[in-house]
Amino acid sequence: xxxxxxxxxxxxxxxxxxxxxPRRHNVNDYFVVTSNVRDxxxxxxxxxxxxxEGSSSEEVVEKRRKAFxxxxxxxxSMCDWEPGMRFxxxxxxxxxxxxIFTDATTGNMVSTRSLNNAILVYEGHSNPNGxxxxxxxxxxxxxxxKKYYYEVPTLSFxxxxxxxxxxxxLAYLGDVDMAIxxxxxxxxxxxxxxxxxxxxxxxxxxxxxxxxxxxxGTVMTITKVGVGTRDFPVKIVVKESNRYGLEGQEFFMLCAxxxxxxxxxxxxxxxxxxxxxxxxxxxxxxxxxMAVAPGLEKWIGKTVFTAYETDMLDEKExxxxxxxxxxxxxxxxxxxxxxxxxxxxxxxxxxxxxxxKQVQVSSNKPTGKEEVLSELFLEGxxxxxxxxxxxxxxxxxxxxxxxxxxxxxxxxxxxxxxxxTRVVGGTYQWVYQFDDANxxxxxxKFSNRTKxxxxxxx
Length: 458
Hints:
Blueprint: E1 9-11, H1 58-72, E2 86-89, H2 93-97, E3 101-103, E4 109-110, E5 119-126, E6 135-140, E7 143-151, H3 157-161, E8 170-172, H4 173-183, E9 187-190, E10 194-198, E11 206-210, E12 219-227, E13 234-240, E14 250-258, H5 266-270, H6 279-282, E15 283-285, E16 303-306, E17 310-313, E18 319-322, E19 327-335, E20 341-348, E21 354-360, H7 373-376, E22 377-379, H8 393-397, H9 407-414, E23 419-420, E24 427-433, E25 441-447, E26 453-457
Parallel strand pairs: 1-14
Antiparallel strand pairs: 2-5, 2-8, 3-4, 3-7, 5-6, 6-7, 9-12, 9-15, 10-11, 12-13, 13-14, 16-19, 16-22, 17-18, 19-20, 20-21, 23-24, 24-25, 25-26
């Protein structure tokens, strides 16, 4: 049986305006598998038009994120269930052992196994013949005359529905219906290293698929949406298009987009901001502008160079030492969840190789060891900067300053000065005060006429 995955919730399910219910889909639409098992599924990829650029501020992006959830998904408490809501019986191993439903005609409890994958339609709750416990009544969608009920263990329905216990084994299809309508065809950025692939056409068994740390941030397209489990009812299948040798492969994740009838408590969802199967920690919707860290879009496409030696991951996820003044183009960027870090994808200007690098956005460095985006990367290409000569690049990369260096070459070699003295006798000085005990103080004298270094002293 499909293992129960720990997934956090993102939002809930919205009802269609006219009927108050999501658009219904045929039962066969709910069973999808990744293409490594079978190239099947009735769902087709529908192109989704890109949204207008709009503002890129943190506030606007957060509003768009919430607007998408609020517009398409709404949590439905059991106390607010309405007749016509549809659920699919998706029992776990435990549910197969315990009988959950009772045949309303015979009064006999029925095996959950016999109802596996059946669609039950909620009809309301009642207390027939003054029984001790109220009954939550469902009809079988394929045979509406067939009724089943779940007997609540408390004295009243209200006592039970407010407890958020829900009904075992039932996956809410409103989540799946709305996800089919609103997510298929969407491009998403995959934030997790591990996804899953089916191992048989029934979708009952699967295997983990390691797409790699360096490949996190890959843009994929949601090609299919199907049913998962009670707690995590939406099975999202994504397909990689043209990066990292993953072309044509499909992967899936089970997601709790709504907590409707979810057996997990709020604290289960709040234990960690990095639950690996949470929708918002697995996917970022590109057309909702959730992919780029707000205010940092300006970095994408920029030519930058490293201000000091650093470490990056290459395409094979091998750590590589990257020298000072190495030049790249930033081709992609996304925020690491809700943290202060972003992941960059960079392409070497000379080598053409692709690397990834995680850096902090702000300069708030409590340990003093975090690498900050604006400190590690400087805009431009040192090879084409005015006043920088190729013959001096080796010295500059080593942080050395030689007589005859221009101001631009000194800046590249050791950065901006702590202080600049006034002109004295046709010269002026740049003073550096370093934290490094091995080079506590440095004074560089320039010619006022040539703007080149005359002497270097410590």
